[in-house]
Structures are given as structure tokens and as C-alpha cells.
Specification:
β3 and β4 form a beta hairpin. The chain contains four helices and four strands, in the order ααβαβββα. 39% of the residues lie in helices and 28% in strands. It is of the alpha+beta class. α2 crosses α4. A four-stranded mixed sheet has the order 1-2-3-4. It is flat and about 55 Å long.
Length: 159
């Protein structure tokens, strides 16, 4: 006979609490306080605007900011065989302490995605919706990677 699901969840919760697990955004958590204190820089183009929108869902804005996250995105496209296009993206970022203007954290992440192109009878590529979807996936992937890297670096600096 299998134990009820509620018993399993209860045991897992106790196990996590006993190993020192605490949610990232818990009040008093140094990593959570660090993330909550980051303000995101304004985007410079449409791609960075899409990236910013994805990052705002992971790093809540508002309140007292003690640091500024600046970022630069670069995308390169390469045609592959059989009407495939690969987009490589990189996001370089820095976190600057707003009081001292000192860079406290830097990093760089990369990701790759792709899409298929199609041709019409006149030979014109009809691929903008596929490209837009690929860029949307790429900015989501880069935002997630930046967020996770910031969390890991903040956690590594805590005693």
C-alpha cells in the first residue's frame, strides 16, 4: 500500500527545512534581499526590450534599489543547410552598486536557437513570424540564464 500524497509532501517539507533550505525571496535571506535590490537598466533596442520584459518576471522591480543591472545583448544569425537559420545570442551583464558606483558582479551567458525559413513562388523568404518566435525563445533563455547565474553568484558570496 502506498502512503498518501499529503504524507509524502509533509516529509519532503520537513527534510528541506532541516537541511537549511529557504526560499530565495524569503524576508531576511541575503540572496533574496540582493535580488530584490536590483534595478534593471533601460533597453536600447527592441531585442533588449524583449529581454528586459522576460527578466522583469524573474527580478521583481520596485521598492528600494541598491544596485543597477546593466546588460548588452548580441545576436548573430547563420544560415544552415535545408533552409535552417541558427541564432546565437549572448548577454553580458554587470551589477553596479548605486551608492559607490563600483561594479560588484559581472557575467556573460550564451544560448542558441533556430528556425526554418520558407520560400514563396517568387523566391521571397517568408520567415518573419518564425524569426520573431526564435528571438522570443532566445531572449527567454538568456534571461533565465542571467537570473540563475546572478542567484548562484550571490549565494556563493554569502557566508
Amino acid at each position: 500500500m502506498r502512503p498518501p500524497l499529503s504524507l509524502i509532501v509533509f516529509i519532503l517539507a520537513i527534510a528541506l527545512a532541516s537541511c537549511g533550505f529557504s526560499p530565495v525571496y524569503q524576508s531576511g535571506n541575503a540572496v533574496g534581499d540582493g535580488v530584490r535590490g536590483i534595478r534593471l537598466d533601460d533597453p536600447k533596442n527592441a531585442i533588449e526590450f524583449a529581454f528586459l520584459h522576460k527578466l522583469q518576471r524573474k527580478i521583481p522591480q520596485g521598492g528600494d534599489s541598491r544596485a543597477l543591472l546593466t546588460y548588452t545583448l548580441t545576436l548573430t544569425e547563420a544560415s544552415l543547410v535545408d533552409r535552417r537559420v541558427e541564432i546565437r545570442g549572448a548577454a553580458a551583464y554587470s551589477i553596479v552598486d548605486t551608492a559607490s558606483q563600483q561594479v560588484t558582479l559581472t557575467g556573460r551567458v550564451t544560448s542558441t536557437t533556430g528556425y526554418s525559413t520558407s520560400t514563396t513562388f517568387s523566391g521571397i523568404m517568408a520567415n518573419e513570424p518564425s524569426r520573431d518566435d526564435a528571438i522570443d525563445r532566445l531572449t527567454e533563455s538568456l534571461a533565465q540564464a542571467v537570473y540563475l547565474q546572478i542567484l548562484a553568484k550571490l549565494a556563493a558570496t554569502q557566508p
